[in-house]
Write a structure and sequence with these properties.
Oligomer: single chain
Shape: globular
Strand order of the largest sheet: 8-7-9-10-13-11-12
């Protein structure tokens, strides 16, 4: 059997971040329920771990396989199956898919959460996801000024950037909060995509206590999102007050305009399935 392979260049040719975000929004509007998506499973390896992410939520069933800890650090492959015959239909570069999917989900959230005239963007991180998020935020808001913060940034300067930002994206491997959440402007939106582990976080309790918290699904957030789990354990946030992306899209919930908005993404299999299906078509 010879299957078409969509490499990173082909993924970029077939779908840009705006089109990917629109595919995700359409799936949610059509009734896709992220709460029913199977949780990812992890297999511990000598040098890292293997993640297995299956989903039958979209037009084509998919399973994405990702390794973490090798060289490069993240590698992977997504297998797309035909819905009618269930035969393998295509292979997709897993990292290109992940990079596109993650930025597209963030773009979809920011389009719903950020003020229309958001012009100042602050990015924590300087890797592929950081740069992908610059492109994604510019696709949905009139961003004019971009500040990118790496590990060597002086904290005092970071405080000023946080206070001035309209949109803040955390795209790091940090294990503890990157900034003081009390400094985030009331109109600002914060996006955190760096981890899917319950003990790791990029944001603090101060932000969680002030913000409307938006997640991809309640079940995945309470299972994997350290930014949310640790804030709830500290009493800074409540599981009952979490808002889902689907609720925003369908008009069932609206963020409080007087509070910061915080979108915590862990990445889910249904997102890979929707975008991989769009790529395969």
């Amino acid at each position: 059997m010879s299957l078409p392979f969509l490499d990173a260049d082909e993924v970029g040719r077939r779908l840009d971040v705006t089109e990917a975000a629109e595919a995700l929004e359409a799936a949610l509007r059509d009734g896709l329920d992220p709460e029913t998506d199977p949780p990812r499973s992890a297999v511990e390896l000598d040098r890292g771990e293997l993640l297995v992410m299956p989903s039958g939520a979209a037009h084509h069933p998919v399973v994405k396989l990702v390794t973490i800890g090798g060289e490069p650090r993240i590698q992977g492959l997504c297998v797309v199956f035909d819905r009618e015959t269930l035969a393998p239909a295509a292979l997709v570069d897993g990292i290109a898919l992940t990079n596109l999917r993650t930025a597209a989900v963030s773009a979809l959230a920011v389009r719903r959460l950020a003020v229309p005239d958001a012009r100042r963007l602050l990015i924590f991180g300087r890797g592929p996801q950081a740069h992908a998020h610059v492109e994604a935020m510019r696709a949905v808001r009139p961003i004019e000024l971009v500040d990118m913060v790496g590990r060597d940034q002086v904290r005092g300067g970071v405080d000023e950037l946080v206070a001035a930002a309209d949109v803040i994206c955390c795209c790091t491997t940090a294990r503890e909060p990157l900034f003081d959440g009390s400094l985030v402007a009331n109109h600002a939106v914060v996006v955190a995509i760096g981890s899917h582990e319950p003990a790791l976080r990029e944001t603090d309790d101060a932000l969680a206590g002030r913000a409307t918290i938006v997640v991809e699904s309640r079940s995945s957030a309470l299972r994997e999102a350290g930014d949310v789990i640790l804030a709830i354990e500290a009493g800074a946030a409540s599981a009952d007050e979490l808002v889902t992306l689907a609720e925003l899209i369908r008009g069932a919930a609206q963020p409080d305009p007087g509070r910061p908005r915080f979108f915590k993404s862990t990445g889910m299999s249904w997102e890979d399935a929707v975008i991989a299906a769009a790529l395969a078509r």
